[in-house]
Design goal:
- It comes from Nonomuraea rubra.
- It is an enzyme of class 2 (transferase).
- By secondary structure, the chain is α/β, with parallel strands linked by helices.
- The protein has a domain at about 5-40 and about 55-130: Ribokinase (UDP-N-acetylmuramoyl-L-alanine:D-glutamate ligase), CATH 3.40.1190.20.
- It is built from 10 helices and 14 strands.
- The strands form 3 sheets. Strands 5-4-1-8-9-10 form a 6-stranded parallel beta sheet, sandwiched between helices.
- The chain is globular, with a radius of gyration of 18 Å.
- The structure holds 6-O-phosphono-beta-D-tagatofuranose (TA6).
């Protein structure tokens, strides 16, 4: 079973519009409301691929209840930890050529709530083959929370992936995660002033088992103990890139439980990321796009 941890769960709202007029009234052509936050999207993709998943994270208030109800309706197994604050919403506004995201910061979480969650997480880890730690931290959580959770997993022999930004990413290598997955901008913020390969090697030197850098249409780069690999995309998929990183992380998580050679893992992850762009909402991927692009990805 793969556990996905989403400390800042969200009700993801997606507005599809023909275009945005920032000075006028915009009519929305389609609305999607569903449980989100990065780990939820990772779990949706893994479940669609037929893998056992368990969603955990912090949920509270009416929004937390709506998230939990949607997970239930989607058939995604969940063991959320209750907090007093109201979980957040995110808004993605997407037209045929652009997507803008508005992500609320999330509730304030107390030290006692975090301690309770850590005990809950330790119990869940007993049945885990891998754990995915992803997304922003809600207010009140220390910046080294992912490092702490990854270290607890590592001490129990459970491999982990961390997908984070800013200080949580900077601290993450201390927790000895199996894989860190920043995008190129996140990596540049965490390790300023070098090339992506240099930045990735720096995080590797600080304790990460491997660093996979996502570079949008330019593909992926993986700096691993076995060498450095690149995945180049044969063409650009048009659509909504929201959630493409989560689909890619799902592919990397599969590589932790079915440890194929790195080139195969990268190809699968890159294809899943691209196939997610073809879908209007985060947490889904287009199987036809996946089947088409997977064999054409160039691995070096
Ligand atoms: O935790 P954040 O970094 O704010 O990201 C959350 C958001 O990202 C997405 O997972 C897309 O990657 C959305 O579903 C949304 O919930």
């Amino acid at each position: 079973m793969i556990i996905t941890v989403t400390l800042n769960l969200a009700l993801d709202v997606t507005y599809q519009v023909p275009g945005v007029d920032w000075d006028g009234v915009n009519r929305v052509s389609a609305v999607h409301r569903r449980a989100g936050g990065k780990g939820v999207n990772v779990a949706r993709v893994l479940a669609a691929l037929g893998r056992d998943v368990l969603v955990t994270g912090l949920a509270g208030g009416p929004t937390g209840r709506a998230v939990e109800a949607d997970l239930h309706a989607a058939g995604l197994p969940a063991a959320l930890y209750g907090i007093a604050g109201d979980s957040r919403a995110t808004l993605a506004v997407t037209d045929p050529d652009h997507t803008a995201l508005f992500n609320e910061p999330g509730p304030e979480v107390t030290a006692g709530e975090l301690a309770g969650f850590v005990r809950h997480y330790e119990t869940l880890l007993a049945g885990a083959d891998a754990v995915v730690l992803s997304g922003s931290l809600p207010r009140g959580l220390p910046a080294d929370t992912y490092a702490t959770l990854a270290a607890i997993a590592a001490d129990r022999g459970v491999p982990s992936i961390v997908d984070a930004d800013g200080d949580p990413l900077r601290h993450a290598p201390k927790g000895r995660p199996s894989i860190l997955k920043p995008n190129a901008d996140e990596l540049a913020r965490a390790v300023p002033g070098g090339t992506p390969a240099e930045g990735a090697r720096a995080l590797l030197g600080q304790g990460a088992g491997a660093v996979v850098v996502s570079m949008g249409a330019d593909g992926l780069m993986a700096v691993t103990g076995e060498g450095t690999f690149a995945a180049r995309m044969p063409y650009t998929v048009r659509g909504n890139p929201t959630g493409a990183g989560d689909s890619l992380v799902a592919g990397l998580a599969l590589g932790l439980v079915e440890p194929d050679p790195w080139p195969d893992r990268l190809r699968r992850a890159a294809a899943l990321g691209a196939a997610a762009v073809a879908r209007p909402v985060a947490g889904e991927f287009d199987p036809d796009v996946y089947a088409d692009i997977h064999p054409q990805i160039i691995i070096t």
